Each structure stands twice: as C-alpha cells, then as structure tokens.
Amino acid sequence: MKTICLVVVCFLFMAPLAWGQLRVGFYSSSCPKAESIIRQVVQQRFGSDRSITAALLRMHFHDCFVRGCDASLLIDSNSTNTKSSEKDAGANQTVRGFELIDEIKKILEAQCPSTVSCADIITVATRDAVALAGGPNYNIPTGRRDGLVSNPSEVDLPGPDVSVAKATKIFKSKGFNANEMVTLLGAHTVGVAHCGFFGGRLSNFQGSGAPDPTMDPTLAAKLLQTCGTTSEPITQDPTAFLYQNTSFIVDNQFYNQILQKRGILQIDQALALDSSTRPVVSSFATNGMAFQQSFAKAMVKMGKVQILVGNTGEIRKNCRAFNPPK
C-alpha cells in the first residue's frame, strides 16, 4: 500500500523534528561571541534610531511568513537571479533594516567565517531590539540555515485591510491560533504605516463619502491632515505612527488604543470588534505582563516556522546573495 502524505500533515509531522535541532546557545562552541556581537550592533543602532525595533519586527515577520525563517527576504536581484527576489514584491517595498543585517554579518564573517546564518541574525537581532524597546528579553534557540530560493511570486502576506477571519486562516496555516495572532499583531505597538495603507478609511470609506465609522472621528481628522484625501493625496505617501503615544515602546497600550477605536490599520481595529478576538484584546489591554509573556512565546514560535536545519540550505557568506556553486 502506498503512503500518501498531505502537505499540511507532513508539515505538522516534520516541524517538531526540525525544531528539535534548534537550541539556545547553538553557537557557544563554533562562534562564542555571536550573540553578543549581534546585541552590540543592534544596541548601537537603537541608540541613534529607535525605529529599528519596528523595522526588524516587520522584516522577521515578512521573512518567516513566506518560505519560513530562512532569510530569503534578504536576497537581492542580480544577473544570476534574473527572476528577481522576495524583496521586489510589493508587500516588501517598504521593509527596511537590511544594512544593519549586512553590518552584523560582516563582523561575524571576520570572527567566524561561514558559521552564523543570516536567518539566525534576523531572529536574534529582532529579539534584542524588542528588549531594548521595553519588551520581553527572551531566550531564542538558534541553528537555522539560509534558504536557496527567493521568489516574489510566493509573497502572499495578509494586507492591512484583511478581515479577521481571513487573517486567522493565514495564521492558522503557519501553526498559530487566534490568541497568538492577536499577540503577534501587537507588534504594531511600535512603528509607522504609510498613508496608502489606511488613507481609504479617512474620508471616503468604501465610497460612503465619510470616514470609517469604526475609527475615532478626532483621530480620522488628525490623520487626514497628514495624508490628505484620496482625491487630493499628499505626495510622497507620508506615514503615521501605528500607536500615537508610546510609539517606540513595546507594551500593551496598543490594545487599549484599538478598544477606543483608535486603530490605524483596518485589521488592527477589527481585532477589537470581532467576537473571536475581542476577549484577547481586552485581556491584554488590562494585563501588560500577560501580553509580554505571550509575546515572548509567540516570537519564539514564529522563529521556528518552516526552518531549515542540519544539512539543508546553506550558511551564506553574504546575506544578500546565495553562495556561489561549489
């Protein structure tokens, strides 16, 4: 009898096997200073640019939710990669922080050549940036390897106006439940969004001629001054903070904001209105410690999505390019 292995079943069966090959302190013998080097570079950057936390959180999410946490997002298009790369997909046009990963990789290659993966650099750097911004400081297992494919056609990330039901389905396909989805979207406690992602909510929502009724009118009026109307937009697609108060701090205040109809992105606001997610939002809004603990666990879990370990993939010498064929 032939054995038929469905994709989802195979993923669920193989994932724990791969996770088991990750471990905290993976580089303790091969590159003992690896994590301290990453931390020092991130700390230096954070000192001059606190927005790097949001940038790394977004990079980490956009990488892990396509082919898994394999640094495929970092690949540049070039003469040998004529089909372009994930970086060229529309959803990734505003992802930033690549030069920070380059800086870390350059130092690590000088210290321990061909040892520390770009995928691990993203994961550890994000953890360190979260801690610097007041978030949890969690242990992250390492041992990931870098992917050998980067295809823009595979980039299918949830957009800012996706429904809660659709977002839940997408997160579930990656192994996350609704609680974990609400937790991870709490990363919107830091960072900004371009007006193009939410401007339709401000003055002519779904052709109504009025702002989105689920947005606080005072906030809509304020954002309209920043963005302009859809008929007369302000050039250069300006940005607004996703959370208007503690914009550089990883805390639970994002959840209080969306309960007050002050969510910038439509999906964020919907979390506070949908019956399947509102209880989680309310819980985190009143219990900052619960959010911090849940966020740490969810980030560790996200760092394990469809990882490459052992002899799969490679350890890139340059995070922007696949290694030359041997």
What does this structure look like?
The protein is mainly α and 326 residues long. It folds into 2 domains: 21-155, Peroxidase, domain 1; 164-301, Peroxidase, domain 2, CATH 1.10.420.10. It is built from 12 helices and 2 strands; from the N terminus they run H-H-H-H-H-H-H-E-H-E-H-H-H-H. The chain has helices at 7-19, 34-48, 52-64, 98-111, 118-132, 164-173, 178-185, 217-227, 253-259, 266-273, 278-286, 288-302, and strands at 192-194, 239-241. Strands 1-2 form a two-stranded antiparallel ribbon. The longest helix has 15 residues, at 34-48. The chain is globular and about 60 Å long. Pfam families: peroxidase (PF00141). Belongs to the peroxidase family. Classical plant (class III) peroxidase subfamily. Belongs to the peroxidase family. Ascorbate peroxidase subfamily. Residues 1-20 form the signal peptide. Substrate binds at residue 158. Disulfide bonds join 31-112, 64-69, 118-319, 195-227.
What's the gist of this structure?
The protein is mostly helical.
Number of helices: 12
Low-confidence stretches: 1-14
- By CATH, the architecture of the largest domain is named Orthogonal Bundle
- Reading the helices and strands in chain order gives HHHHHHHEHEHHHH
How do the strands of the widest beta sheet line up side by side?
1-2
Count every beta strand, where a strand is a DSSP E run of 2 or more residues. Answer: 2
Biggest sheet record: 2 strands, antiparallel
Task: Give the overall shape.
Answer: globular
What is the CATH topology assignment of the largest domain?
Peroxidase, domain 2
- Which structural class best describes the helix and strand composition? mainly alpha
What is the CA-based Rg, rounded?
A: 20 Å
Number of domains: 2
Overall average pLDDT: 90
Please give the share of residues in helix. 40-55%
What is the CATH class designation of the largest domain? Answer: Mainly Alpha
Q: What amount of the residues lies in strands?
A: under 5%
